[in-house]
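Working notes for the structural subgroup meeting. M.R. asked for a predicted model of this chain before we commit to crystallization trials. I am recording the input and output together here so anyone reviewing the notebook later can reproduce the run.

Input as submitted:
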Amino acid sequence: MPTKQGDLSMLNDPIAQQLLNSSIPAHLAYVWTDGTPRVVPIGFTWTGKELVTSSPSNAPKLLALKEGDQVAVTFDSYTPPFMVLNIRGIVHLCSCDELVPEWCQAAIRMMGKAGGEGFLNMVDGMLKAGVIKITRIAVEPTWAGIVDFQTRFPSGIEKGMEAMAALSGNT
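Returned structure, recorded in token form:
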């Protein structure tokens, strides 16, 4: 039987939790100002309700992203058995006067303590000097799906598996 993809309860699945708390970057997909798609690697922290990151306000993605836009985020393991968490959601933006705590958590989780703190100190220096401003980017999930290539497969493969089972009488 095909996996019921789309239900937000999928975010509580152990595979989703493993990917959401891993040190691998997520990939944020959005639509550029000319209507073409873009995908960028980015560090997020899952709060239990939203994926949160931040970015300098002059970053290209913030020229395109607007409050309420629909985006997609994917987390992919890079080693077998491959696991994928796909999330669709709504963007919420907020200008901030200081570093966003969830972004700090993501930096340390992904770069290690020394690397993350070094990066954050550099960004904080730019913020305090007035060279950059920071925008908090939150993605409120509206859909979630998992592919683990063991029990959950891409929908076309699952449909083919169902058809094969029906042909062999194993329904």
